[in-house]
Amino acid sequence: MTRSGRALITGLVSISLWVSMLAIGTAQQPIRIGASISQTGPYSAPGQNQLRGYRLCVKHTNEKGGVLGRKLELVVEDDQSQPATAARIYERSSHRTGSTPSSGPTRRPSPKLWPT
What we know:
Elements: H1 3-26, E1 31-37, H2 44-63, E2 72-78, H3 83-96, E3 100-103
Parallel strand pairs: 1-2, 1-3
């Protein structure tokens, strides 16, 4: 191999390493979204539907490139259908996981029970 051939290969390897290090250096952490969802207890059935919906939204968003180029990560905790547990989850969420609490349980009476 000639001297110019070795120089070319060395240059290409150097550029490849530089580009790969640049990609590693600019890799961004995912956006963590916290959710308190009733996975157990009396509200577990609607909670499972809510969880499936959240996961589907995260999947579709990530498939389209995320938000501002960052992937989404869903952090879910079971509130056991208890308001006090949900409140503790929200208090811990931003400190422990670095996620932003965004959604939680909704407990509304059935429309069938509302007076007409």
